[in-house]
Design brief:
mainly alpha; 3% strand
Length: 372
């Protein structure tokens, strides 16, 4: 990323032994980098062969039909269709007559069957994947609704976030052809591009997912004082993400407040854990579906065996310790990033070749000034 962005913007702006300015990464928080993929796409390599956003728009797919695609994935695994109330009570598009919070969320209103999503859906690949993520919450909520109230939750916070993301990993070229969005499946030559685009979101997120609660916990414990809120924020971002502030910052700024989960007081480690768990779930479900090819090409859509394994875990809710819930679906009792490494192994080989002879790591920026 640093090399390619340096070629686009110049090495004065993107120092090749330093950090990447955060505003060049295509996301307000530089938490996921996929939006700048066109700037860093493999040179001379075959592209992914398709643009999911363009495929969705070519089919004139509206917000509800995009959601139907997500529902049909779950029903193909053997789950019941969403209730009629889901379609009448959910928010799918931004209202014209009032302001709403468009941050996507899933809701369980009565702990029985009144589940809903709240999204301002646009015909984009990002929202298509987000829908699968949010429906993962809803199908989890329905699965454990017969548990006592205290157990009507995910095995841990990371589980709830990982379910829909594990489903979304199955949105492969093969799956897109299966559901009629793609005419031809690209060959193996497209894998580098597909995996790079995926890693720019999935892998780039990991340090960001880790640092949010590090900052929050230090604030709550009193280790970071109000006079140092912004300085501590950027020190963590420098250290973990290797990104620098676009402009000089001071304690007159409060950059953490720009992240919804900070003023909303929403714990964030769940998203970090989910990034690891989703690949572990995905591999386990692919194995249950009888898939034996390269992991990144697996889609377990249509596998009733995978659906039964998934449902057995979902129904447990929080009634058993999370290692037991993990074992019920994957046969493993410990969280393990091995599945993530296996998924991206072909990309890692390519990246090692690209980075040969280049600076690894980065120099820290000067501390953000304290207020006087």
């Amino acid at each position: 990323m640093r090399t390619r962005l340096g070629e686009s913007y110049g090495t004065q702006l993107v120092p090749q032994n330093g950090m990447i300015p955060a505003h060049l990464l295509g996301n307000m928080w530089a938490q996921e980098w996929g939006n700048v993929y066109p700037l860093v796409a493999p040179k001379g390599a075959q592209g992914s062969g398709y643009d999911l956003t363009e495929l969705i728009r070519a089919k004139k797919t509206d917000a509800k039909e995009m959601t139907r695609y997500g529902e049909r994935f779950f029903t193909s695994l053997g789950f019941d269709s969403l209730p009629a109330t889901f379609w009448t009570r959910s928010l799918f598009t931004k209202p014209a007559d009032r302001d709403v919070v468009c941050h996507a969320s899933a809701w369980n209103i009565d702990n029985v069957d009144d589940v809903r999503i709240k999204m301002c859906i646009e015909p984009t690949a990002e929202d298509f994947i987000t829908i699968h993520h949010e429906l993962g919450h809803n199908f989890y909520q329905r699965a454990y609704n017969k548990q006592p109230p205290l157990f009507q939750s995910g095995a841990n916070d990371g589980f709830h976030e990982a379910i829909g993301d594990a489903i979304a990993l199955s949105i492969t070229p093969e799956y897109l052809k299966q559901i009629g969005l793609l005419d031809r499946v690209p060959g193996p030559a497209a894998d580098t591009a597909l995996l790079l685009r995926q890693a720019m979101d999935k892998v780039a997120f990991l340090p960001f997912g880790l640092l949010i609660d590090q900052w929050r916990w230090k604030v709550f414990s009193g280790e970071v004082k109000p006079a140092d809120y912004n300085r501590a924020w950027w020190e963590l971002r420098n250290r973990y993400q290797g990104v620098s502030a676009p402009l000089a910052r001071s304690e007159g700024d409060f950059d953490p407040g720009a992240k919804y989960h900070v003023p909303g007081n929403t714990p964030y480690t769940r998203y970090f854990l989910a990034r690891v768990l989703q690949f572990q779930f995905y591999k386990g479900l692919c194995r249950e579906a009888g898939y034996t090819g390269p992991l990144h090409r697996c889609s377990f859509a249509g596998s009733k065996a995978a659906g039964q394994k998934l449902n057995a875990m979902l129904e447990m809710g929080q009634s058993r310790p999370w290692p037991e819930a993990l074992q019920a679906m994957t046969g493993e009792r410990r969280m393990d990033a091995g599945a993530m490494l296996e998924y991206f192994a072909p990309l890692k080989k390519w990246l090692d070749e690209q980075n040969r002879g280049k600076t690894v790591g980065w120099e820290q920026a000067a501390p953000v000034a304290r207020s006087r």
